[in-house]
Design a protein that fits this description.
The structure is a homodimer of 147-residue chains. Chain A has 147 residues and is of the alpha+beta class. Chain A has a single domain (6-141), classed as 2,3-Dihydroxybiphenyl 1,2-Dioxygenase, domain 1 (Roll), CATH 3.10.180. Chain A contains 3 helices and 8 strands, in the order βαβββαβαβββ. The longest helix of chain A is centred in the N-terminal third of the chain and has 11 residues, at 16-26. The interface between A and B is large, with 47 and 47 residues. Chains A, B: Its EC number is 5.1.99.1.
Chain lengths: 147, 147
């Protein structure tokens, strides 16, 4: 397998609204997308674009703000340990999600569940941080209209 | 201030050698730089390039692998809490490090020390995670020959 593009960095927050204000007013983000719910995953998310260079705007990896949605959200445990929020996962793109799953499993890595539709509308899975140098890693199929 | 390019994601590891093997053999990274010591900061680091797209190679943000260097390394505490390693900080570029320091301080954010030379040879500082949504944030001046 060849390392793909870093699509986004997942950052957990107790409040997406407060985090949007932080990224807009303190960090100076120019492009912040509309937040939306992912009920199947128990999260509400919001993507903040980063620029590729000094010209600003978009094109670099996004910051994915993640807030718990519902009482069964898997994010509650993270916030109990890190009440202010913090870095949660890294997401890399692959051309074929099923080939990627077979690759990681062949390397003895623990893939968490079957591929499912993620926040960008393509198939994703997560790999357990214990097998990935302590980094919870999301693998997502590159959107067909991207890049 | 305008959000700058995401230069790198800092990832702590108990062993840079083992992490290089992981990023090369499991993640498929094609460009991994020579590790080097930063004695003033008590760390040994190694940059792994990520691609901008499906063509592979470099151009995206780097992964900065960080291993403790010496008994007084500030990274020992992180590894005591996270023995396998894990995500440590995000680093964004700015055109002027002193203007950026004044900006964050003006926003009431705790800047950790004076600007100093970082791993890419330009001035950097860190901002305390408690003021940054739980994310330890490095701000670095863009290298003059970059991008």
């Amino acid at each position: 397998m060849k390392l793909g593009r870093l699509n986004h960095i997942g950052v957990v927050t107790p409040s997406i609204e407060a985090s949007i204000a932080f990224w807009r007013d303190t960090m100076g983000a120019e492009v912040i997308r509309e937040p939306f719910d992912l009920p199947a995953q128990g999260v509400r998310v919001c993507f903040v674009d980063t620029p590729l260079g000094a010209a600003g705007g978009s094109g670099g990896p996004q910051i994915e703000l993640i807030e718990p949605l519902g009482e069964a959200s898997p994010i509650h445990g993270f916030l109990a340990k890190n009440p202010a929020g913090g870095q949660h996962h890294l997401c890399f793109e692959v051309p074929d999600i099923h080939a990627a799953k077979a690759w990681f499993e062949g390397q003895g890595k623990k893939v968490l569940g079957e591929p499912r539709i993620g926040a960008h509308g393509t198939l994703i899975f997560f790999v357990h941080p214990k097998d990935m140098g302590g980094v919870l890693t999301e693998i997502m199929e590159t959107p067909k209209d991207a890049h």
